[in-house]
Specification:
alpha+beta, two-stranded antiparallel ribbon, two-stranded antiparallel sheet, elongated, DUF4278 domain-containing protein, DUF4278
Length: 146
């Protein structure tokens, strides 16, 4: 079948779909209706010659897949951080978190009282005030919102 779209003429051959009668039938306004179902639903992809960034490619054709070689990955070399270094870094992080939490609370207290001072200047007097008994349980609760 010859078709024309916006001045371009092309041949169109619609795919043939094999149909089979359905068990569903009925009457509508005096006329008999019988439905037909396709035996196999065709899935057609358009074949296009396209160009992307100067490289031509064609849709609708599968690209050849190169066979993969199974290469064993090289073992990962670890630096071997000691347990003492990990414990120290965890303690330093905990110490910084406590400091930031205390500075935040001090800043809120300054705002409530109406002082215009920087709470970061007052860290030195605060740093030794946490007793060792409370140090381990000083973390923020998992349900806290602040």
């Amino acid at each position: 079948m010859k078709l024309t779209y916006r001045g371009v003429t092309y041949d169109y051959n619609p795919p043939v779909v094999e149909m089979e009668p359905s068990k569903i039938q009925g009457k509508y306004r005096g006329l008999e209706w019988r439905f037909r179902n396709p035996k196999r639903v065709p899935v057609l992809q358009p074949t296009l010659d396209l160009k992307y960034r100067g490289v031509s490619y064609r849709t609708g054709t599968p690209a050849p897949v190169a066979e993969r070689s199974h290469v064993q990955p090289a073992p990962v070399q670890t630096t071997g951080v000691s347990v003492n270094d990990l414990a120290r870094s965890l303690l330093v992080k905990h110490h910084k978190d406590v400091k930031l939490r205390q500075q935040t609370l001090l800043g809120r207290a300054f705002a409530e009282v109406g002082l215009n001072a920087d709470p970061s200047k007052y860290w030195a007097p605060i740093q030794g005030k946490i007793s060792s008994a409370n140090w381990l349980s000083y973390d923020r609760s998992h349900v806290a919102m602040s």
